[in-house]
Amino acid sequence: MDATTGKLILLNKVSSRGVGPCHISIDKTGKTLVVANYGSGSVASFPILPDGRLGEAVSFFQHQGSSVDKDRQQGPHAHCAVISPDNRFVLVADLGTDEVFSYRLNPEKAVLQANDPPSIHLTSGWGPRHLVFHPNGKLIFLVSEIGSRLTSLSYDTDRGTLRELQSVSTLPQDFAGVSTAAEVQVDHSGRFVYASNRGNNSIAVFSVDPKNGNFALVEHVSTQGKTPRNFSIDPTGSWLFAANQDSGSIAIYRVDSATGRLKPFGELVKDAPEPSQVLFVTGE
User: Domain of 125?
Assistant: First the structure.
């Protein structure tokens, strides 16, 4: 990437070893890339070469199983692959099997190994989608797409295993329409967690107790558009950008550091066709 112009130059391509790759993560050494294949429900890892090219996959795991939603959970659907802060484990949320899988990571060789136990099973029909680590590295917040649920889990840093703590709906109590949860983020201080609702078209804001993982609703804020598939908090922690996929817009909010509340700022960015993710590029 040209840091001045933002121009991208293709280096190479490799097979993701599955259908519908939808999420990638890079480990802290910059030597390993992990991909979650949604369509086929699998996960693979790749070495990142010194010149930035990708080597062929060195690890591959095909998930098995299904769950109660016959339309959405007829088979496995790996939706995200997140590397732990200590760079020792990879956690994969599978929407199709209602599980979060755990893999041990060898970053020097870019190799994954199934953990023991290999996964934790959540309530059938929830459809785990995305997860994020709390800054303390001992808590995880997981958003489930089908059930529109936010769940806190404790994370065993030695074993790479999970234990469910609390789960609540991401939707307002009086909402009666169709909606699916999409994204989850924790603010930089670790005091607030945010989740997006596609259909209700809102960001749900929760306060967090970092000691026990308990959380409570603060507010729901409209995204001023349709289908907030993704949102991101900027590196300063002061701003939140919400991408409305179906209305082609990005809403900007000022984050109140004391309360976690969001206040709309300025006009919508309306020239963003079908935005699916907001990323901040950092560099010298």
Answer: 21-169
CATH code where residue 70 lies: 2.130.10.10
Give how far Cα 187 sits from Cα of 147, 168, 238, Å: 23, 19, 9
* Contact in structure between 243 and 278 (CB atoms under 8 Å): yes
Rounded Cα gap, residues 267 and 120, in angstroms: 43
> Does 114 reside within a domain?
yes
Residue 62 domain-assigned (yes or no): yes
Q: Largest Cα–Cα distance of the chain, in whole Å?
A: 53
Tally the domains of the chain. 1
Condensed to tens digits (0 to 9), the pLDDT of residues 131-156 reads 999 999 999 999 999 999 999 999 99
Angle at 25 between CA 21 and CA 28, to 5 degrees: 160
Token output for 136? 């303390």
What are the tokens at 180?
A: 């699916």
- Looking at 175-246, list the stretches that DSSP marks H as alpha helix, in order from N- to C-terminal side: none
Question: pLDDT digit string (tens) for 76-100?
Answer: 999 999 999 999 999 999 999 999 9
How far from chain centre, in Å, is Cα 128? 10
Which of 133, 161, 138, 131 is closest to 211 using CA atoms? 138
In this prediction the pTM is 0.96
Is residue 273 within 8 Å of 262, Cβ to Cβ?
Answer: no
Nearest in space to 136 (alpha carbons), one of 86, 97, 67, 79: 86
Q: What is the average per-residue pLDDT within 161-186?
A: 97
CA dist 128 and 180 (Å) reads: 11
